[in-house]
Design a protein that fits this description.
elongated; alpha/beta; two-stranded antiparallel sheet
């Protein structure tokens, strides 16, 4: 049975009385070649643990289970649990958990699987993410330091382009800096809207995020760094001297001094700064605030 076949999808929907939920962003893949390419892009090995976010009918899950030592699939929609029990019933290395990824301790799942199965490979997170909640899911995984080696996920192409953008490009923004701080980013493939049921209004893309063992910059205060990034891009048409004013209670003259210390032109805009330059500004701001407290 080809789970990705439109005929199979319709048969399952009819037998279970299942209707797709727009609120959960449910769109099911119908192209076997793309499914295989996603699994290949995730570089799943026979000793690896795969954690899947939102298995849907189990098309990626089944493909991953054929490659990996163990697969854990986290599904928020309780109506899909009995369907997954059917579609994945032939695999003894798959565990389906009902739950919300934003409220689930993924690291605890990974540690439990290490204790129970002692797999010797890497941890791969995969998923076809709902468009409306892609960024919160990715940042939740990264900020909570998910104990994985890679995250290979499908998302709206526009979001993928933003994550994978560099300084000086139109799509470069706070999400670009945030994800690239934690990961190296590469695009696996573009995915047209025509290969989904129901068909979404936009195209998708698959990114592979390889989590860094060491961060690309040293930070005095990570929270202050991200506050500077968000402030800069929050008013991206403004120059740094204006957009950074207010961060940490700093006034315009304070920002001017911080930019002077980092040899940064105050007329520049956030979209022109790379991660290293943002880090230099944030570290200088931290030192400046520390000096002000001691004086």
């Amino acid at each position: 049975m080809e789970l990705y076949s439109p005929k199979t999808i319709e048969d399952i929907r009819r037998r279970y009385g299942f209707s797709l939920s727009k609120s959960l962003g449910q769109n099911f893949l119908t192209d076997g070649n793309i499914i295989r390419d996603i699994i290949e892009g995730a570089d799943i090995g026979e000793d690896d643990l795969v954690v899947e976010i939102g298995p849907g009918l189990g098309v990626l899950t089944a493909a991953a289970a054929e490659k990996a030592a163990s697969v854990v699939a986290l599904e928020i929609d309780s109506r899909l649990i009995p369907i997954l029990e059917e579609t994945l019933g032939g695999f003894d290395n798959v565990e389906v958990i009902e739950g919300d990824v934003l409220k689930t301790d993924i690291n605890e799942i990974i540690r439990r699987k290490r204790r129970e199965e002692a797999f010797t490979g890497k941890v791969r997170v995969i998923g076809n993410l709902p468009y409306y909640i892609t960024t919160p899911i990715i940042m939740n995984l990264l900020e909570n330091r998910v104990e994985a080696d890679t995250i290979t996920v499908m998302m709206q192409k526009e979001v993928a382009d933003r994550i994978n953008s560099g300084p000086g490009t139109k799509s470069y923004g706070a999400i670009s800096v945030a994800v690239q701080y934690y990961c190296t980013v590469s695009k696996v493939m573009n995915v047209p809207a025509s290969v989904f049921v129901p068909r979404p209004k936009v195209d998708s893309a698959v990114l592979n995020l390889t989590l860094r063992e060491e961060m690309p910059v040293e930070l005095r205060d990570r929270e202050l760094f991200f506050r500077c990034v968000r402030a800069g891009f929050g008013q991206r048409r403004k120059t740094l001297s204006n957009s950074l004013t207010g961060v940490g209670g700093l006034e315009k003259n304070d920002i001017a001094e911080i930019l002077r210390r980092t040899d940064t032109d105050p007329r520049r805009r956030a979209e022109t700064l790379d991660i290293g330059e943002f880090a230099a500004i944030a570290n200088a701001a931290y030192d400046y605030l520390a000096e002000r407290e001691t004086n």
